Amino acid sequence: MLAVAAGVFGAAALAPVALSVPARAQGTCTVSGPTTTCTFAFTGAEQTFTVPNGVSQVDVTAIGAAGGLSGVNTTPGGRGAQVSGTLTGLSGGQTLYVEVGGVPTLPSSCYPFSPCVGGFNGGGSSHFGGGGGGASDVRTQPRTTPLTTTDSRLIVAAGGGGAGEVFSPSCTGGSQGGDAGQPGANGMCTGGGGGGAGTATQGGPGGVSPGNTNGSPGTLGTGGDGGAGTGGAGGGGYYGGGGGGSLNANVSPFGSAGGGGGGSSLVPAGGTGPAVTGAAAGITISYPTPGKPVTTRLIAIPQQVRLGRPVVLDDLVCPAGAGATTPPTGTVTFTDTTAGVTLGTARLVLNLGNCAAAGRVVFFRTTGPHVITAVYSGDSVYQGNGGSPENITVTVNP
Asked: What GO biological process, any one, is recorded here (predicted)?
C-alpha cells in the first residue's frame, strides 16, 4: 500500500515533515444546516480564523472581559461590552487574527486578594486595586504589529475597569470599576477620582487624586494603570479607559481609591452594540456554509509504527451528492492534535473518478498514541470540513 500511495501523491507530496512548528489555537467550529459557527474562548494567546473559499463576509459577536475586584473589600470591577456586526470585503484563504480578552490575574506581584495584572489584550494594571479587563477583537494583522503602526481591528468589544482599593471600612460605597464605555466610580471620603472611559478618538483620562498619585490615562487599545497601585486600572478597548486616582492618605479615615474606567468599543457599520454584559469573554464567527458537501476518508500507513519510522497519511475527498461532475480541488492540512503541531498542508490531486487525494509522509518524535486530523479547505464548488474534520490515531512504539 505504501507503493500505491507514493504513486498517487508523487515525490513532492512525500517530502518528510518536521514536527517543530506549533499549531495555532483555533476555535471550535460546528455546522448546523446551512450555517457554520466557530466559537473562540479565552486562551491567553492570539488565535486565527481562515476565511473559507467562496466566503466574502462573516458575522461576528465579540464580548470583552470584566475588570478585577479590589483587595480586602472585594469591590466589584466593571463589566465588558458585547458588540455584533458583519465583516465584509473578505477573501477565501485570508487569515483573521482573533484576540479574546482575559480577566485580570493574581500573580505574586499583586496584593494577595486582588487580581491586579491587567487581562490579556489591553487591560491596565494596579497592585492593591483590580486590573482592567482585556478587550476582544478581530483584526487583519497579527498582534506583533503595533496598533500605533497599523490598526487593522475590524470589531472591538471593550473590557471593564478594575475596582479601586478601599482601605477604611467607613469609606465604602464607591471605587467600583466602570463598565465598558463608562467611567470608574470616585473613591469615598475625599478619595481618588475614577478613571474616565475611553472614547472613539482617545483614551480615558486618569482619575485625579487629591492626596497622592493620579491614575494613568488610557491609550490606543490599552487601559491606564491605577494611581500608586491603589487605583483601579482601566479596561482595554478601541481606546482604553483611564486608571483610577490613588487613595488619599492625607485625610482620616483614608479616602478610598477611584475605580478604573471602561474601554471603548468599535462597532462595524450596520452592527449592534455596545451593550454591557456579564457574560464571559469570547468571539463567535458565523457564515453560510459554502458549496456542495464532500465525504472524506483518512488512513495512515502503517497505523502502528516504531519511533523514527515514516508514516504515510492519505486523505481521500469525494463529492457527497449525486450529479457532481468535477473533482474537489484545494488543500488538506494534517495536524497532530496530541502534540499540538501542524504536520503540513498538501494539495489535492486527481485520484479515481470524481475523487481527489492529498498525502504527507511524517516522522514522529515521541511515543504513544497520536491523534491526527485532516481538514479539507474547500473550494469554489465544495465545502470544507473544518467544522467536523476526520481523525485517526497512530500509535508510535519505542
From this structure: carbohydrate metabolic process
Would strands 390-397 and 304-306 be described as parallel, antiparallel, or unpaired?
parallel
String of b and e for 204-240 (b: at least 16 CB within 10 Å)?
bbbbbbbbbbbbbbbbbbbbbbbbbbbbbbbbbbbbb
187 residue type, one letter: G
Q: Which of 191, 195, 254 is nearest to 224 (CA)?
A: 195
pLDDT tens figures, 184-209: 999 999 999 999 999 999 999 999 99
H or E element that contains 10: helix 2-13
Which grid coordinates belong to 51?
A: 476565511
Residue 67 has pLDDT above 60, yes or no: yes
User: Are 258 and 215 contacting, i.e. CB atoms less than 8 angstroms apart?
Assistant: yes
In angstroms, how far is CA 101 from the centroid of its own chain? Answer: 7
Cell numbers given for 70: 479590589
Burial class of residue 244 (count of CB atoms within 10 Å of its CB; 0-12, 13-18, 19+):
buried
The C-alpha cell at 1 is: 500500500
b/e for 172-193, b at 16 or more Cβ within 10 A? Answer: eebbbbbbbbbbbbbbbbbbbb
- State percent of the chain over pLDDT 90: 76
Burial zone of 48 (CB within 10 Å; 0-12 exposed, 13-18 middle, 19+ buried): middle
Quick count: other Cβ atoms within 10 Å of Cβ 379? Answer: 25
Whole-angstrom distance, CA of residue 352 vs CA of residue 253 = 83
Separation of alpha carbons 85 and 87, rounded Å: 7
